[in-house]
Amino acid sequence: MRWKNAALLALAVLVVGCSSNSKKELPPAELPDFTEEVQLQEQWSHSVGDGQGDTFNMLVPAVEGQRIFAADVSGEVVALDRTSGDEVWEADLDVPISGAVGAGYGLVLIGTLKGEVIALDSDTGEERWRSRVSSEVLAAPATNGQLVLVQTSDDTLTAFDAYTGSHMWTFNNTPAVLTLRGSSSPLLTDRLAIAALSSGKVIALDAQRGIPVWEQAVAIPQGRSELERVVDIDGGLLLSGGKLYVVSYQGRVAALDVDSGRVLWQREASSSVGVAEGLGSVYVSQANGTVEAIDERSTSALWSNDQLARRQLSAPEVFSSYVAFGDFEGYLHLVSQVDGRFVARERIDSDGLRARPLVVGDWLYAYGNGGKLVALTIK
């Protein structure tokens, strides 16, 4: 276990391109100059404890109604009015948080390094229930109002009663020998529990019984070494219009039919952070720092922006007519959905910006590694 944990962390560092003593390693690209076309206006900012911490957490905030919920690595959870930034409540769980934040149906859901899932009341922050799972939780739990679904670092899926926290079912998977540090947040509909695995597969289970409905391989491990064979799906699943969008590391980006798992289209890609969708295109932040727009009809690249090579980009998010994403120096970039040109840039947090931006209507929320949560609009 000690070797495996060290290997996981080392691989995560390798993937994001952190500095080393090797003379052959290329540095991150310098920020390109461009003519600003739109202005990002900060509406409010709030400090959330210690932020993401040093273990490559992806503690993405969540919105329910008029509130935004965020958590830090040390156990602080806050609820803020999402338009004013005023604090509604704060809870100190006093546990190391590694999977956050899931929200919906009156619950705020948190996963911990100690193998716990904690449900808080979204109105008051009071703890509703706390249950054990098989290992650490590295992604936000999901809920459909009846169940809470948790994916642990060993690819096990566990469902709990949303009201009481009582165990409903468990589905075990065999994880890959070597994996990235992280896991994709599962999806939970009224009918299906959907999860992406370190083996490069996506599975769908019957939500009520935990029985397999379909399974689809998005990527197939290739290469002689275990490093070359890593095909984790860590970047999250995107469900839109009956299509399930997914991207793997050293594999493919694909669209699946959510009911059957059938591959609608696929294209080679490598990403550990995820995709966004809009205007008939799918946007991918590649592991090498290239951002690409893929046309869903032809599966060809509409445009590719490689000017941020090796800058450890976050997952993209569609914001108005633009695509937003962060980088390791804490800059939020906006590029055009049409041709990928830069239109705006704003520094959010000097500690970096690896969590996916969160967009609700005309508002964008960015959560920096150092704990700075910022609400932005286009001026």
UniProtKB/TrEMBL annotation:
Residue ranges of every copy of the Pyrrolo-quinoline quinone repeat domain listed in the record: 74-305
Cellular component terms (Gene Ontology): cell outer membrane
Predominant cellular place of this UniProt entry's protein: membrane
SUPFAM superfamilies assigned to the protein according to its UniProt record, in alphabetical order: Quinoprotein alcohol dehydrogenase-like
UniProt GO BP: Gram-negative-bacterium-type cell outer membrane assembly; protein insertion into membrane
Pfam families linked to this entry: PQQ_2
Keywords: Cell outer membrane, Lipoprotein, Membrane, Palmitate, Signal
InterPro entries: BamB, PQQ_b-propeller_rpt, PQQ_rpt_dom, Quinoprotein_ADH-like_sf, WD40/YVTN_repeat-like_dom_sf
Membrane topology reported for the UniProt record: Lipid-anchor
Subcellular localization(s) per the UniProt record: Cell outer membrane
Source superkingdom: Bacteria
Signal sequence, renumbered to the chain: 1-24
Purpose: Part of the outer membrane protein assembly complex, which is involved in assembly and insertion of beta-barrel proteins into the outer membrane.
Membership in a protein family: Belongs to the BamB family.
UniProt subunit comment: Part of the Bam complex.
Identification of the protein by name: Outer membrane protein assembly factor BamB
Organism, as annotated: Pseudomonas marincola
